[in-house]
Amino acid sequence: MLGKVSTCSRRTFLMVVAAVAAAAVAALPLVPLVVSAQGNATVATALPQGTMRIIVPYSPGGGTDILARAIAQQLGELLHRSVIVDNRVGANGTIGAAYVARSPPDGLTMLLVPAGYAANPALYQSLPYDQAKDLAPVTLLASGPLVLVVHPSLPVKSVKELIALAKSQPGQLNVGNAGIGSLPHLSAELFNVSAGVKLVSVPYKGAGPALVDVLGGRVQVYFMNILQCLPLIKDGKLRGLGVTSPQPSPIAPDIPPIAATVPGFDMTNWYGMLVPAATPSETVHVLQGALSSVLTQPDIKQKMYNEGMTVVASTPEQFTTFLARETAKYNRVIESAGIKNSL
Questions:
Q1: Do residues 89 and 57 lie in contact, with contact meaning Cβ atoms separated by under 8 Å?
Q2: Residue 47 lies in a domain
Q3: pTM of the entire structure?
Q4: Which sign, positive or negative, has the C-alpha torsion 284, 308, 328, 60?
Q5: 1 in a domain, yes or no?
Q6: Predicted local distance difference test score (pLDDT) of residue 63
């Protein structure tokens, strides 16, 4: 701790604080130095004092909330300050996102979102914020695929065979989903567009009810969490045809990517962190460095694995590019499928 500074001028005191902050930040990965006009190397402005908050725009207990609480604990230990999780629920995450968009841009308030965040501009007719202008990407935390599964009674053993069957029976095969606008729903619609087929989407109130009907054979096709489906595939209750990522997943390397049959197919689940858009670039990079360090912790990696994901820890620039591409993709899928809600 710093003692009293009665013998120091305010300028000297601030220089001491900056030096201490520099030493702490220098230990974090991927935090670049900022060079002043005079050519002297300085670090980004330290975060202001106060409690940090990770806003989760979904209810407690879900995957987003569980990840946020794990990150909050590790981040608090790393930065030696209190980091709390604040659930602000509603409208597919837009209420929490709007809250962060209006928060002070000081780095103390962050937003943790899943992949569905990128669909909101196309899914809703209006938003209480401009998603492209009011929130700044910090890092893509982790990503992982879903698996295209079918009931074993369906006479197909590959994506190619499923496409052939669907084309021979247009509108006769059903594909379940966890709700309108959910990732399984959008995956199915992207498959329809990309493969030139017409699987009929059947919405359910959550993944649980959808899975019950898939296992019962009342719905033949489903896009499912990779870890949840692997035991069912092993027991012969489902048949896995392909993963939704462009490359095979290290979690299930024997399941080929759908993209091997349908070029360009890509629909991964992911988590990302954002802050208010006016947050200084230096602060954004300090946060990214701290989060990158947290994501290397074994318990965080395990929680990611439990969600069927692997750690990414991208730079802000990489996440910005990724998010723009994801948003454009969701827009095409939602427009093509005629999916539209309104707040």
A1: yes
A2: no
A3: 0.81
A4: negative
A5: no
A6: 84
